[in-house]
Design goal:
With about 600 residues, the chain is α/β, with parallel strands linked by helices. The chain has 21 helices and 21 strands.
Length: about 600
Protein backbone atom coordinates (compact mmCIF):
# COMPACT_ATOMS: atom_id res chain seq x y z
CA UNK A 1 0.00 0.00 0.00
CA UNK A 2 1.27 3.47 -0.91
CA UNK A 3 -0.59 6.37 0.71
CA UNK A 4 -0.50 9.93 -0.61
CA UNK A 5 -0.85 12.23 2.42
CA UNK A 6 -1.97 15.83 2.09
CA UNK A 7 -1.19 17.91 5.19
CA UNK A 8 1.58 15.66 6.50
CA UNK A 9 3.51 18.47 8.18
CA UNK A 10 0.46 19.83 10.02
CA UNK A 11 -0.50 19.37 13.66
CA UNK A 12 -2.51 16.21 12.95
CA UNK A 13 -0.54 15.06 9.91
CA UNK A 14 2.76 14.72 11.76
CA UNK A 15 1.19 12.40 14.33
CA UNK A 16 -0.41 10.28 11.58
CA UNK A 17 2.93 9.91 9.77
CA UNK A 18 4.61 9.01 13.06
CA UNK A 19 2.12 6.18 13.64
CA UNK A 20 2.10 4.97 10.02
CA UNK A 21 5.91 4.88 9.94
CA UNK A 22 5.62 1.82 12.21
CA UNK A 23 3.28 0.03 9.78
CA UNK A 24 4.00 -2.02 6.64
CA UNK A 25 3.08 0.75 4.19
CA UNK A 26 4.78 3.26 1.92
CA UNK A 27 4.02 6.94 2.37
CA UNK A 28 4.20 9.73 -0.19
CA UNK A 29 3.99 13.10 1.53
CA UNK A 30 2.82 16.16 -0.41
CA UNK A 31 4.71 19.09 1.14
CA UNK A 32 5.30 22.72 0.22
CA UNK A 33 8.68 22.78 1.95
CA UNK A 34 10.71 19.58 1.71
CA UNK A 35 13.24 20.81 4.31
CA UNK A 36 10.44 21.11 6.88
CA UNK A 37 9.43 17.51 6.18
CA UNK A 38 12.91 15.92 6.45
CA UNK A 39 12.46 14.98 10.13
CA UNK A 40 9.29 13.11 9.17
CA UNK A 41 11.05 11.30 6.34
CA UNK A 42 13.82 10.37 8.77
CA UNK A 43 11.30 8.28 10.76
CA UNK A 44 11.47 5.62 8.02
CA UNK A 45 13.58 6.83 5.04
CA UNK A 46 13.15 3.58 3.16
CA UNK A 47 9.35 3.90 3.29
CA UNK A 48 8.68 7.64 3.10
CA UNK A 49 9.02 9.75 -0.07
CA UNK A 50 8.49 13.49 -0.40
CA UNK A 51 6.81 15.27 -3.30
CA UNK A 52 6.78 19.06 -3.48
CA UNK A 53 3.48 20.73 -4.28
CA UNK A 54 0.61 22.89 -3.14
CA UNK A 55 -3.01 21.93 -2.64
CA UNK A 56 -4.20 25.30 -3.97
CA UNK A 57 -2.44 24.89 -7.35
CA UNK A 58 -3.60 23.06 -10.45
CA UNK A 59 -2.26 19.51 -10.56
CA UNK A 60 -1.22 20.24 -6.96
CA UNK A 61 1.79 22.10 -8.38
CA UNK A 62 3.63 18.80 -8.96
CA UNK A 63 6.49 18.59 -11.43
CA UNK A 64 6.63 15.66 -13.85
CA UNK A 65 8.78 13.46 -11.60
CA UNK A 66 6.71 14.08 -8.45
CA UNK A 67 3.48 13.65 -10.42
CA UNK A 68 4.66 10.21 -11.50
CA UNK A 69 5.49 9.32 -7.88
CA UNK A 70 1.99 10.35 -6.83
CA UNK A 71 0.52 8.18 -9.59
CA UNK A 72 1.95 5.08 -7.88
CA UNK A 73 -0.19 5.67 -4.78
CA UNK A 74 -3.33 3.63 -4.22
CA UNK A 75 -4.81 5.49 -1.25
CA UNK A 76 -5.18 9.19 -0.43
CA UNK A 77 -5.41 10.78 3.01
CA UNK A 78 -6.43 14.44 3.00
CA UNK A 79 -5.92 16.25 6.32
CA UNK A 80 -4.57 19.47 4.82
CA UNK A 81 -5.72 23.09 4.98
CA UNK A 82 -5.11 25.95 7.42
CA UNK A 83 -6.59 26.03 10.92
CA UNK A 84 -7.66 29.67 10.92
CA UNK A 85 -11.28 30.50 11.65
CA UNK A 86 -10.72 34.15 10.67
CA UNK A 87 -9.94 33.32 7.00
CA UNK A 88 -11.56 35.58 4.42
CA UNK A 89 -14.00 34.03 1.96
CA UNK A 90 -11.43 34.20 -0.85
CA UNK A 91 -8.68 32.57 1.23
CA UNK A 92 -11.01 29.89 2.56
CA UNK A 93 -12.30 29.13 -0.92
CA UNK A 94 -8.77 28.79 -2.29
CA UNK A 95 -7.57 26.56 0.57
CA UNK A 96 -10.58 24.29 0.86
CA UNK A 97 -12.89 24.36 -2.13
CA UNK A 98 -10.34 24.95 -4.89
CA UNK A 99 -7.96 22.67 -3.02
CA UNK A 100 -10.47 19.81 -3.02
CA UNK A 101 -11.06 20.33 -6.75
CA UNK A 102 -7.32 20.06 -7.46
CA UNK A 103 -7.01 17.02 -5.22
CA UNK A 104 -9.94 15.17 -6.78
CA UNK A 105 -8.61 15.88 -10.26
CA UNK A 106 -5.43 14.00 -9.33
CA UNK A 107 -7.42 11.32 -7.48
CA UNK A 108 -9.47 10.57 -10.60
CA UNK A 109 -6.28 10.31 -12.62
CA UNK A 110 -4.73 7.91 -10.11
CA UNK A 111 -7.96 5.89 -9.94
CA UNK A 112 -7.95 5.31 -13.69
CA UNK A 113 -4.45 3.90 -13.60
CA UNK A 114 -4.20 2.33 -10.17
CA UNK A 115 -7.71 1.88 -8.76
CA UNK A 116 -7.76 3.74 -5.48
CA UNK A 117 -8.51 1.59 -2.45
CA UNK A 118 -9.89 4.52 -0.49
CA UNK A 119 -9.86 8.27 0.02
CA UNK A 120 -9.92 9.45 3.63
CA UNK A 121 -10.95 13.05 4.19
CA UNK A 122 -10.59 14.72 7.60
CA UNK A 123 -13.34 17.36 7.74
CA UNK A 124 -14.86 18.52 11.06
CA UNK A 125 -17.48 17.49 13.58
CA UNK A 126 -19.82 20.39 12.77
CA UNK A 127 -20.26 19.17 9.19
CA UNK A 128 -23.99 18.53 8.64
CA UNK A 129 -23.35 15.94 5.90
CA UNK A 130 -23.40 12.15 6.11
CA UNK A 131 -23.40 9.28 3.62
CA UNK A 132 -26.98 10.16 2.62
CA UNK A 133 -26.31 11.41 -0.95
CA UNK A 134 -29.83 12.81 -1.39
CA UNK A 135 -28.84 15.71 0.90
CA UNK A 136 -25.81 16.89 -1.10
CA UNK A 137 -25.46 15.29 -4.54
CA UNK A 138 -27.30 18.01 -6.52
CA UNK A 139 -25.53 21.00 -4.93
CA UNK A 140 -23.22 22.89 -7.31
CA UNK A 141 -20.69 23.98 -4.71
CA UNK A 142 -19.00 26.46 -7.04
CA UNK A 143 -22.22 28.33 -7.74
CA UNK A 144 -24.34 27.98 -4.62
CA UNK A 145 -24.17 27.50 -0.89
CA UNK A 146 -25.94 24.48 0.50
CA UNK A 147 -28.94 25.57 2.66
CA UNK A 148 -27.40 23.89 5.72
CA UNK A 149 -24.39 26.21 5.43
CA UNK A 150 -26.17 29.52 4.92
CA UNK A 151 -24.95 32.14 7.38
CA UNK A 152 -21.89 30.16 8.50
CA UNK A 153 -18.46 31.88 8.56
CA UNK A 154 -16.23 31.43 5.47
CA UNK A 155 -13.92 28.95 7.21
CA UNK A 156 -16.72 26.51 8.05
CA UNK A 157 -18.67 27.15 4.87
CA UNK A 158 -15.80 26.44 2.48
CA UNK A 159 -14.51 23.52 4.51
CA UNK A 160 -17.89 21.78 4.39
CA UNK A 161 -18.56 22.70 0.77
CA UNK A 162 -15.30 20.91 0.00
CA UNK A 163 -16.67 17.96 2.00
CA UNK A 164 -19.67 17.93 -0.38
CA UNK A 165 -17.47 18.17 -3.47
CA UNK A 166 -15.20 15.29 -2.44
CA UNK A 167 -18.28 13.17 -1.68
CA UNK A 168 -19.80 13.99 -5.07
CA UNK A 169 -16.67 13.18 -7.07
CA UNK A 170 -15.95 9.99 -5.11
CA UNK A 171 -19.50 8.77 -5.69
CA UNK A 172 -19.44 9.66 -9.38
CA UNK A 173 -16.17 7.78 -9.99
CA UNK A 174 -16.86 4.86 -7.63
CA UNK A 175 -14.01 5.65 -5.26
CA UNK A 176 -14.55 4.43 -1.68
CA UNK A 177 -14.62 7.42 0.67
CA UNK A 178 -14.25 7.64 4.44
CA UNK A 179 -14.87 10.97 6.15
CA UNK A 180 -13.44 11.57 9.63
CA UNK A 181 -15.17 14.36 11.56
CA UNK A 182 -13.08 15.20 14.64
CA UNK A 183 -13.92 17.87 17.20
CA UNK A 184 -11.34 20.42 18.40
CA UNK A 185 -7.94 18.71 18.55
CA UNK A 186 -5.52 19.17 21.46
CA UNK A 187 -2.10 17.69 22.27
CA UNK A 188 -1.42 14.01 22.80
CA UNK A 189 -2.74 12.24 25.87
CA UNK A 190 0.77 11.61 27.24
CA UNK A 191 2.15 15.17 27.35
CA UNK A 192 -0.56 17.56 26.11
CA UNK A 193 1.93 19.11 23.65
CA UNK A 194 -0.21 21.38 21.44
CA UNK A 195 1.79 23.16 18.72
CA UNK A 196 -1.36 24.47 17.03
CA UNK A 197 -2.40 27.73 18.67
CA UNK A 198 -5.65 28.12 16.78
CA UNK A 199 -8.73 26.12 17.75
CA UNK A 200 -8.31 25.22 21.43
CA UNK A 201 -5.38 27.64 21.63
CA UNK A 202 -7.72 30.47 20.72
CA UNK A 203 -10.08 29.41 23.52
CA UNK A 204 -7.20 29.44 26.03
CA UNK A 205 -6.03 32.81 24.72
CA UNK A 206 -9.50 34.22 25.38
CA UNK A 207 -9.67 32.84 28.94
CA UNK A 208 -6.12 33.87 29.93
CA UNK A 209 -6.77 37.42 28.71
CA UNK A 210 -9.94 37.73 30.80
CA UNK A 211 -11.86 38.76 27.66
CA UNK A 212 -14.64 36.24 28.36
CA UNK A 213 -15.60 36.58 32.06
CA UNK A 214 -18.88 34.69 31.52
CA UNK A 215 -19.84 31.11 30.69
CA UNK A 216 -21.33 30.85 27.18
CA UNK A 217 -24.54 28.87 27.05
CA UNK A 218 -24.44 27.34 30.50
CA UNK A 219 -24.78 23.68 31.43
CA UNK A 220 -26.32 22.53 28.14
CA UNK A 221 -23.21 23.40 26.09
CA UNK A 222 -19.87 21.67 25.71
CA UNK A 223 -16.61 21.98 23.80
CA UNK A 224 -15.82 18.47 22.49
CA UNK A 225 -12.07 17.77 22.48
CA UNK A 226 -9.92 14.89 21.22
CA UNK A 227 -6.21 14.15 21.71
CA UNK A 228 -4.20 14.28 18.49
CA UNK A 229 -2.70 10.80 18.97
CA UNK A 230 -6.17 9.32 19.48
CA UNK A 231 -7.45 11.02 16.31
CA UNK A 232 -4.43 9.63 14.45
CA UNK A 233 -5.24 6.14 15.77
CA UNK A 234 -8.75 6.40 14.33
CA UNK A 235 -7.35 7.49 10.96
CA UNK A 236 -4.77 4.70 10.90
CA UNK A 237 -7.49 2.18 11.76
CA UNK A 238 -9.63 3.59 8.94
CA UNK A 239 -6.79 2.99 6.49
CA UNK A 240 -6.65 -0.69 7.36
CA UNK A 241 -10.33 -1.30 8.07
CA UNK A 242 -12.54 -3.07 5.58
CA UNK A 243 -14.23 -0.73 3.09
CA UNK A 244 -17.95 -0.25 3.70
CA UNK A 245 -20.78 1.64 2.00
CA UNK A 246 -21.17 4.06 4.91
CA UNK A 247 -17.98 5.49 6.36
CA UNK A 248 -18.71 8.90 7.89
CA UNK A 249 -17.29 8.90 11.39
CA UNK A 250 -18.07 11.70 13.87
CA UNK A 251 -15.43 11.41 16.59
CA UNK A 252 -17.54 13.03 19.28
CA UNK A 253 -18.13 11.31 22.59
CA UNK A 254 -21.58 10.79 24.00
CA UNK A 255 -22.70 13.92 25.80
CA UNK A 256 -22.29 12.47 29.31
CA UNK A 257 -18.61 11.68 28.60
CA UNK A 258 -17.67 15.29 27.80
CA UNK A 259 -17.30 18.01 30.39
CA UNK A 260 -20.01 20.68 30.34
CA UNK A 261 -18.65 24.09 29.39
CA UNK A 262 -19.26 25.31 32.97
CA UNK A 263 -17.02 22.58 34.36
CA UNK A 264 -14.43 22.89 31.58
CA UNK A 265 -14.05 26.67 31.93
CA UNK A 266 -13.77 26.29 35.69
CA UNK A 267 -10.98 23.70 35.39
CA UNK A 268 -9.13 25.75 32.78
CA UNK A 269 -9.38 28.94 34.84
CA UNK A 270 -8.10 27.17 37.95
CA UNK A 271 -5.19 25.63 36.03
CA UNK A 272 -4.28 29.14 34.83
CA UNK A 273 -4.50 30.37 38.46
CA UNK A 274 -7.38 32.69 37.60
CA UNK A 275 -10.78 33.16 39.17
CA UNK A 276 -13.49 30.92 37.74
CA UNK A 277 -16.29 32.64 35.79
CA UNK A 278 -19.60 32.37 37.63
CA UNK A 279 -22.21 33.98 35.39
CA UNK A 280 -23.80 32.01 32.53
CA UNK A 281 -25.07 33.93 29.50
CA UNK A 282 -27.53 32.40 26.99
CA UNK A 283 -25.64 31.36 23.86
CA UNK A 284 -27.92 33.25 21.48
CA UNK A 285 -27.59 36.46 23.48
CA UNK A 286 -23.79 36.17 23.55
CA UNK A 287 -23.63 35.65 19.78
CA UNK A 288 -25.89 38.67 19.30
CA UNK A 289 -23.63 40.81 21.49
CA UNK A 290 -20.56 39.65 19.57
CA UNK A 291 -22.19 40.40 16.22
CA UNK A 292 -23.27 43.84 17.47
CA UNK A 293 -19.72 44.95 18.23
CA UNK A 294 -18.70 42.84 21.20
CA UNK A 295 -16.25 40.94 19.01
CA UNK A 296 -14.30 44.11 18.19
CA UNK A 297 -14.47 45.32 21.77
CA UNK A 298 -13.16 42.09 23.31
CA UNK A 299 -10.92 40.89 20.48
CA UNK A 300 -12.82 37.56 20.44
CA UNK A 301 -13.63 36.43 16.88
CA UNK A 302 -17.38 35.94 16.61
CA UNK A 303 -16.86 32.61 14.85
CA UNK A 304 -14.82 31.27 17.79
CA UNK A 305 -18.08 30.50 19.61
CA UNK A 306 -19.04 28.06 16.85
CA UNK A 307 -16.84 25.39 18.44
CA UNK A 308 -19.30 25.19 21.34
CA UNK A 309 -22.35 23.03 20.85
CA UNK A 310 -25.43 21.66 22.55
CA UNK A 311 -26.00 19.09 19.80
CA UNK A 312 -26.07 15.34 20.16
CA UNK A 313 -24.07 13.57 17.45
CA UNK A 314 -24.95 10.29 15.77
CA UNK A 315 -21.82 8.22 16.35
CA UNK A 316 -23.34 4.79 15.67
CA UNK A 317 -21.06 4.14 12.66
CA UNK A 318 -18.04 5.06 14.75
CA UNK A 319 -19.06 2.57 17.43
CA UNK A 320 -19.81 -0.04 14.75
CA UNK A 321 -16.40 0.09 13.03
CA UNK A 322 -13.90 0.74 15.85
CA UNK A 323 -12.90 -1.16 18.96
CA UNK A 324 -14.61 -0.22 22.22
CA UNK A 325 -11.27 0.59 23.89
CA UNK A 326 -10.57 3.22 21.24
CA UNK A 327 -14.13 4.59 21.51
CA UNK A 328 -13.54 5.16 25.23
CA UNK A 329 -10.62 7.44 24.39
CA UNK A 330 -12.59 9.84 22.15
CA UNK A 331 -13.18 12.35 24.97
CA UNK A 332 -9.79 14.00 25.53
CA UNK A 333 -7.66 13.28 28.58
CA UNK A 334 -4.87 15.36 30.15
CA UNK A 335 -6.66 18.54 29.08
CA UNK A 336 -4.94 20.66 31.72
CA UNK A 337 -1.49 19.66 30.47
CA UNK A 338 -2.57 20.92 27.04
CA UNK A 339 -3.80 24.17 28.65
CA UNK A 340 -0.43 24.71 30.35
CA UNK A 341 1.45 23.85 27.16
CA UNK A 342 -0.55 26.40 25.17
CA UNK A 343 -0.13 29.01 27.90
CA UNK A 344 3.63 28.36 27.82
CA UNK A 345 3.76 28.87 24.03
CA UNK A 346 1.67 32.05 24.24
CA UNK A 347 4.01 33.32 26.96
CA UNK A 348 7.46 32.38 25.66
CA UNK A 349 6.94 31.38 22.01
CA UNK A 350 8.44 28.20 20.61
CA UNK A 351 11.30 26.81 22.70
CA UNK A 352 13.13 23.67 21.68
CA UNK A 353 13.38 20.74 24.10
CA UNK A 354 16.20 19.04 22.19
CA UNK A 355 17.96 16.90 23.36
CA UNK A 356 15.50 16.43 26.25
CA UNK A 357 12.44 14.24 25.97
CA UNK A 358 9.22 15.02 27.75
CA UNK A 359 6.85 12.94 29.87
CA UNK A 360 4.05 13.64 32.32
CA UNK A 361 4.24 12.64 35.97
CA UNK A 362 0.81 13.01 37.52
CA UNK A 363 -0.28 16.41 36.20
CA UNK A 364 3.23 17.85 35.82
CA UNK A 365 5.63 18.04 32.89
CA UNK A 366 8.99 16.36 33.38
CA UNK A 367 12.03 16.49 31.07
CA UNK A 368 14.60 13.70 30.74
CA UNK A 369 18.09 13.06 29.42
CA UNK A 370 19.01 9.40 29.15
CA UNK A 371 21.91 8.05 31.20
CA UNK A 372 22.98 5.30 33.56
CA UNK A 373 23.67 4.92 37.29
CA UNK A 374 21.77 6.87 39.95
CA UNK A 375 19.54 9.56 38.36
CA UNK A 376 19.89 13.26 39.16
CA UNK A 377 16.58 15.06 39.82
CA UNK A 378 16.56 18.86 39.52
CA UNK A 379 13.89 21.12 41.03
CA UNK A 380 13.82 24.79 40.07
CA UNK A 381 13.06 27.85 42.18
CA UNK A 382 10.68 30.79 41.77
CA UNK A 383 10.99 33.17 38.80
CA UNK A 384 12.13 30.18 36.73
CA UNK A 385 11.01 26.80 35.41
CA UNK A 386 12.51 23.48 34.38
CA UNK A 387 13.86 24.78 31.07
CA UNK A 388 16.03 27.31 32.94
CA UNK A 389 17.96 24.32 34.32
CA UNK A 390 18.49 22.66 30.93
CA UNK A 391 22.10 23.87 30.62
CA UNK A 392 22.93 22.63 34.11
CA UNK A 393 21.33 19.28 33.28
CA UNK A 394 23.34 18.99 30.06
CA UNK A 395 26.59 19.74 31.88
CA UNK A 396 25.82 17.16 34.58
CA UNK A 397 24.83 14.56 32.00
CA UNK A 398 28.04 15.13 30.05
CA UNK A 399 30.27 14.92 33.12
CA UNK A 400 28.58 12.00 34.88
CA UNK A 401 26.74 10.06 32.18
CA UNK A 402 23.77 9.89 34.55
CA UNK A 403 20.10 10.18 33.71
CA UNK A 404 18.81 13.72 34.27
CA UNK A 405 15.25 14.46 35.35
CA UNK A 406 14.01 18.07 35.52
CA UNK A 407 10.47 18.89 36.63
CA UNK A 408 8.28 21.88 35.88
CA UNK A 409 6.69 22.51 39.26
CA UNK A 410 2.87 23.04 39.25
CA UNK A 411 2.00 26.47 37.85
CA UNK A 412 5.37 26.88 36.12
CA UNK A 413 6.71 26.03 32.67
CA UNK A 414 4.42 23.51 31.01
CA UNK A 415 2.72 22.29 34.21
CA UNK A 416 -0.78 23.46 35.17
CA UNK A 417 -1.42 25.14 38.50
CA UNK A 418 -3.18 22.71 40.84
CA UNK A 419 -5.50 24.22 43.40
CA UNK A 420 -5.52 22.44 46.76
CA UNK A 421 -6.57 23.50 50.25
CA UNK A 422 -2.90 23.66 51.25
CA UNK A 423 -0.83 25.52 48.65
CA UNK A 424 2.23 23.24 49.08
CA UNK A 425 0.33 19.96 48.69
CA UNK A 426 0.68 19.48 44.89
CA UNK A 427 4.40 20.31 45.05
CA UNK A 428 5.04 17.71 47.71
CA UNK A 429 2.84 15.21 45.87
CA UNK A 430 5.01 15.69 42.77
CA UNK A 431 8.17 14.93 44.77
CA UNK A 432 6.50 11.81 46.16
CA UNK A 433 5.51 10.72 42.64
CA UNK A 434 9.06 11.27 41.37
CA UNK A 435 10.34 9.25 44.29
CA UNK A 436 7.88 6.45 43.47
CA UNK A 437 9.09 6.12 39.86
CA UNK A 438 12.72 6.12 41.10
CA UNK A 439 12.51 3.49 43.88
CA UNK A 440 16.22 2.57 43.78
CA UNK A 441 17.37 5.98 44.90
CA UNK A 442 18.27 9.31 43.29
CA UNK A 443 20.19 12.50 43.91
CA UNK A 444 17.61 15.26 44.46
CA UNK A 445 19.00 18.74 43.77
CA UNK A 446 16.80 21.70 44.65
CA UNK A 447 17.44 25.36 43.87
CA UNK A 448 15.91 28.06 46.09
CA UNK A 449 12.20 27.19 46.42
CA UNK A 450 13.06 23.73 45.06
CA UNK A 451 15.48 23.38 47.99
CA UNK A 452 12.74 24.47 50.40
CA UNK A 453 10.50 21.74 48.99
CA UNK A 454 13.20 19.12 49.51
CA UNK A 455 13.66 20.20 53.12
CA UNK A 456 9.90 19.95 53.71
CA UNK A 457 9.73 16.55 51.99
CA UNK A 458 12.70 15.30 54.04
CA UNK A 459 10.99 16.37 57.26
CA UNK A 460 7.97 14.30 56.18
CA UNK A 461 10.29 11.31 55.53
CA UNK A 462 9.78 11.06 51.76
CA UNK A 463 13.32 9.84 51.13
CA UNK A 464 15.15 6.61 51.77
CA UNK A 465 18.77 5.92 52.66
CA UNK A 466 19.45 5.41 48.95
CA UNK A 467 18.60 9.03 48.21
CA UNK A 468 20.93 11.99 48.45
CA UNK A 469 19.87 15.65 48.81
CA UNK A 470 21.87 18.69 47.69
CA UNK A 471 20.56 22.21 48.27
CA UNK A 472 21.42 25.15 46.04
CA UNK A 473 20.81 28.51 47.74
CA UNK A 474 18.15 27.30 50.21
CA UNK A 475 16.00 30.35 51.13
CA UNK A 476 16.24 29.92 54.88
CA UNK A 477 17.07 33.38 56.26
CA UNK A 478 15.52 36.21 54.24
CA UNK A 479 17.02 39.66 54.84
CA UNK A 480 14.08 41.82 53.77
CA UNK A 481 10.29 41.75 53.71
CA UNK A 482 8.16 40.54 50.81
CA UNK A 483 6.21 43.38 49.13
CA UNK A 484 2.46 43.16 48.65
CA UNK A 485 1.38 40.83 45.83
CA UNK A 486 -0.33 43.59 43.85
CA UNK A 487 2.81 45.76 44.09
CA UNK A 488 5.07 42.92 42.97
CA UNK A 489 2.79 42.14 40.04
CA UNK A 490 2.66 45.78 39.00
CA UNK A 491 6.45 46.13 39.23
CA UNK A 492 7.01 42.98 37.15
CA UNK A 493 4.53 44.05 34.51
CA UNK A 494 5.99 47.51 33.93
CA UNK A 495 9.71 46.90 34.50
CA UNK A 496 12.00 46.89 31.47
CA UNK A 497 14.71 44.26 31.04
CA UNK A 498 17.29 46.89 32.04
CA UNK A 499 15.33 47.70 35.22
CA UNK A 500 15.00 43.99 36.00
CA UNK A 501 18.75 43.55 35.59
CA UNK A 502 19.39 46.51 37.91
CA UNK A 503 17.04 45.05 40.53
CA UNK A 504 18.41 41.49 40.23
CA UNK A 505 21.98 42.82 40.48
CA UNK A 506 21.21 45.04 43.48
CA UNK A 507 19.64 42.11 45.33
CA UNK A 508 22.52 39.79 44.41
CA UNK A 509 20.23 37.53 42.39
CA UNK A 510 22.57 37.91 39.41
CA UNK A 511 26.07 39.38 39.39
CA UNK A 512 26.79 40.19 35.76
CA UNK A 513 25.39 40.63 32.27
CA UNK A 514 26.47 37.24 30.95
CA UNK A 515 24.54 35.91 27.97
CA UNK A 516 22.85 33.31 30.19
CA UNK A 517 21.73 36.05 32.60
CA UNK A 518 20.36 38.14 29.72
CA UNK A 519 18.35 35.23 28.30
CA UNK A 520 17.05 34.41 31.76
CA UNK A 521 15.83 37.98 32.33
CA UNK A 522 14.08 37.98 28.96
CA UNK A 523 12.15 34.92 30.12
CA UNK A 524 11.33 36.56 33.45
CA UNK A 525 9.96 39.57 31.58
CA UNK A 526 7.90 37.35 29.26
CA UNK A 527 6.49 35.39 32.20
CA UNK A 528 4.36 38.43 33.13
CA UNK A 529 2.11 37.57 30.17
CA UNK A 530 0.86 34.51 32.06
CA UNK A 531 -1.41 34.87 35.09
CA UNK A 532 -0.64 31.21 35.84
CA UNK A 533 3.08 31.86 36.25
CA UNK A 534 2.92 35.31 37.87
CA UNK A 535 0.18 34.49 40.38
CA UNK A 536 1.80 31.19 41.33
CA UNK A 537 5.20 32.86 41.77
CA UNK A 538 3.86 35.61 44.00
CA UNK A 539 1.68 33.27 46.09
CA UNK A 540 4.60 30.92 46.74
CA UNK A 541 6.96 33.83 47.41
CA UNK A 542 4.72 34.96 50.26
CA UNK A 543 4.37 31.39 51.55
CA UNK A 544 8.14 31.02 51.53
CA UNK A 545 8.43 33.88 53.99
CA UNK A 546 6.18 31.99 56.43
CA UNK A 547 8.04 28.66 56.17
CA UNK A 548 10.29 27.83 59.16
CA UNK A 549 12.98 26.10 57.12
CA UNK A 550 15.79 26.64 59.65
CA UNK A 551 14.07 24.10 61.91
CA UNK A 552 14.13 21.48 59.19
CA UNK A 553 17.69 21.56 57.92
CA UNK A 554 19.82 18.46 58.44
CA UNK A 555 23.50 19.39 59.01
CA UNK A 556 24.56 16.44 56.84
CA UNK A 557 22.90 17.83 53.69
CA UNK A 558 25.49 19.59 51.49
CA UNK A 559 24.74 23.14 50.38
CA UNK A 560 26.16 25.22 47.56
CA UNK A 561 25.91 28.92 48.39
CA UNK A 562 26.21 31.98 46.16
CA UNK A 563 27.97 34.46 48.41
CA UNK A 564 26.84 37.55 46.47
CA UNK A 565 23.17 36.96 47.38
CA UNK A 566 21.92 40.00 49.30
CA UNK A 567 18.35 38.73 49.76
CA UNK A 568 19.22 35.70 51.90
CA UNK A 569 21.85 34.88 54.49
CA UNK A 570 23.76 31.58 54.40
CA UNK A 571 22.41 28.84 56.70
CA UNK A 572 23.93 28.92 60.19
CA UNK A 573 22.61 25.43 60.94
CA UNK A 574 25.32 23.58 58.95
CA UNK A 575 28.99 23.86 58.11
CA UNK A 576 28.77 21.61 55.05
CA UNK A 577 28.70 24.55 52.63
CA UNK A 578 30.58 25.12 49.37
CA UNK A 579 30.79 28.82 48.54
CA UNK A 580 30.67 30.24 45.02
CA UNK A 581 31.29 33.96 44.38
CA UNK A 582 27.98 34.20 42.52
CA UNK A 583 24.40 35.42 42.91
CA UNK A 584 21.22 33.66 44.02
CA UNK A 585 20.43 32.30 40.55
CA UNK A 586 23.88 30.82 39.94
CA UNK A 587 22.53 27.44 38.67
CA UNK A 588 20.95 29.38 35.79
CA UNK A 589 23.58 32.07 35.15
CA UNK A 590 26.62 29.81 35.67
CA UNK A 591 25.56 26.21 34.94
CA UNK A 592 29.06 24.87 34.24
CA UNK A 593 30.55 26.17 37.48
CA UNK A 594 27.55 24.75 39.35
CA UNK A 595 27.92 21.38 37.64
CA UNK A 596 31.62 21.18 38.52
CA UNK A 597 30.87 21.57 42.24
CA UNK A 598 27.88 19.20 42.10
CA UNK A 599 29.96 16.48 40.46
CA UNK A 600 32.56 16.75 43.24
CA UNK A 601 29.83 16.44 45.88
CA UNK A 602 28.11 13.53 44.14
CA UNK A 603 31.07 11.50 42.97
CA UNK A 604 34.01 12.89 44.93
Amino acid sequence: MNILIIGATGFIGKEIVKQLAREDVFLTLLVRNSAKARPLQALAPEKIALVTGDLTKENLGLNAIDHERAMHCNMILHCGGPMDITLSEAAAKSSFLEGSKNLMSLAKEINKRNKLKKIIHVAGYMSPFTDDASVWETTDVFKEVHPALLGTPPYEQMKFLSDIYIRQEAKKHHIPLAVINPPTVIGDEQTGSTEQLEGFGLFIKIIRSGALPVIPGGTDYRLPLINKNVLAQFIVKTIFNETKDEMTYPLVADKHADKEIVQLMGLISESLNRSKPRLSVPFGLLKFVMAAGGSKLTGIPESSLNFLTNRTFDNRLTKRDFESELIKKIAASNILLAVADIDFRLTYGEESLTPYTRIAVDEATVYQLEGSATPLVLLHGLFSDGTDLFQLGLALNKQTGRKIIIADLPGFGRSPFIKKQQLLTPYLELIRSLKNILPDGSVFIGHSFGAALLLTAAEQRFFSENDQLILLQPPIHKTDSVPATWLSKLALKHASERQLLAYFTKKGLLIDEAASSSEYLKRVKKSVRSSRIVNTTLQLNRLLKEMTLHQRIDPSIPIIWGTEDKSYLPPRETTKIVDLPLGHHFPISHPQETADVLVELIEG
